[in-house]
């Protein structure tokens, strides 16, 4: 049974991510099953998880962090049930247990797994974050980050503090979709295909695709400020969450060591540029990120040793203003 990414390995030794399960939509239509209402929804995240942090980024930059509450789990996986050995996302016992994580005050759950079991008693899939939770119906609305960010972009505009910010504008949608596709396959998911590969050939295929895609990004960003032009879009947020983890985690833990992010002048400055957008730095908790990856994958890092570096300052000056905004 597939319950986490560590279980998603094919016979060839390659990592193959399975699809998310809960796919309901929140709508601006007040008559819909899940209408956009202030205070009704809660976002469960891990600061370690890039997919969850996409969604948290949207809460901040769209100005929805007052209308939609959120909370974070502990960074290191733990036992989710005494009856089996499954390790997954768990909540701390108190706010002081792990700085940045907090108990589940809505449902009293001890783990993300419990939330899935509340929402569906016969659920058999993965217990992943993000989880977009409906407080009123006490169920999971959606656990697919690419769909959650689309909802946050448009469906809450009547209560968002930044309703005019559109990260998926009509005139760029085809370009954004096409960009998302190759960035997801080769970079966002590509680092996992490198890290979770159990045979040399799939690892080498994944690492080749990863660096071809990073080289492509570097070339694009030598000519324009953002990945789809001189306007910030969804594609930038989706790329950023992987780049911010690259030198700190993926280079070592996932063996993505052919070239550091810091050796790509445009990509590195671009990452600092996105990090410095108001609200984005709130989504980056490097302590949680490093504790999770190095502490939750014993098949990769059996002793859980966390590297002390490189401690990059992403608030340092960048050169991206040379492109017109």
Would you give an account of this structure?
There is one protein chain. Helices cover 35% and strands 6% of the residues. It is of the alpha+beta class and 325 residues long. The chain has a four-stranded mixed sheet, sandwiched between helices. Strands 3-4 form a two-stranded antiparallel sheet. A hairpin with a 4-residue loop joins strand 5 and strand 6 (139-142). Helix 1 (50-61) runs antiparallel to helix 7, helix 7 (234-253) packs across helix 8 and helix 7 crosses helix 9. The longest helix is centred in the middle third of the chain and has 21 residues, at 200-220. The protein is globular and about 50 Å long. 42% of the residues are buried.
Give a short summary of the structure.
It contains 9 helices and 6 strands, in the order βαβββαββααααααα. It has 325 residues and is of the alpha+beta class.
Continuous helix count: 9
What's the total number of strands?
6
Element string (H = helix, E = strand): EHEEEHEEHHHHHHH
Report strand %: 5-15%
């Amino acid at each position: 049974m597939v319950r986490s990414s560590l279980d998603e390995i094919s016979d060839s030794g390659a990592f193959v991510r399975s699809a998310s399960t809960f796919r309901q939509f929140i709508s601006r239509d007040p008559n819909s099953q899940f209408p956009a209402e202030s205070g009704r929804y809660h976002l469960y995240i891990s600061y370690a998880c890039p997919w969850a942090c996409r969604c948290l980024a949207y809460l901040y930059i769209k100005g929805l962090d007052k209308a939609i509450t959120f909370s974070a789990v502990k960074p290191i996986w733990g036992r989710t049930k005494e009856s089996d050995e499954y390790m997954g996302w768990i909540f701390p016992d108190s706010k002081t247990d792990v700085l940045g994580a907090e108990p589940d005050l809505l449902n009293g759950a001890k783990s993300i797994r419990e939330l899935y079991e509340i929402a569906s008693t016969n659920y058999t899939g993965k217990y992943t974050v993000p989880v977009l939770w409906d407080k009123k119906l006490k169920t999971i609305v959606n656990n697919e980050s690419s769909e959650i960010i689309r909802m946050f972009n448009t469906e809450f505009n009547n209560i968002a503090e930044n309703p005019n910010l559109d990260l998926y504008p009509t005139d760029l949608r085809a370009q954004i979709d096409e960009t998302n596709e190759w960035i997801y396959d080769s970079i966002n998911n590509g680092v996992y295909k490198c890290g979770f590969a159990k045979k040399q050939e799939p690892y080498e295929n994944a690492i080749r695709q990863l660096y071809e895609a990073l080289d492509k990004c570097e070339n694009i960003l030598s000519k324009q400020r953002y990945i789809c032009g001189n306007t910030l879009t969804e594609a930038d947020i989706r790329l950023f969450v992987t780049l911010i983890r690259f030198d700190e985690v993926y280079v070592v833990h996932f063996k993505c060591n052919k070239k550091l992010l810091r050796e790509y002048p445009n990509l590195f400055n671009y990452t600092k540029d996105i990090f410095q957008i108001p609200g984005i730095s709130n989504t980056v908790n490097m302590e949680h990120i490093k504790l999770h990856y190095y502490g939750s994958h014993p098949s990769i890092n059996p002793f859980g040793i966390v590297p002390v570096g490189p401690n990059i300052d992403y608030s340092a000056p960048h050169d991206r203003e040379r492109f017109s905004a």
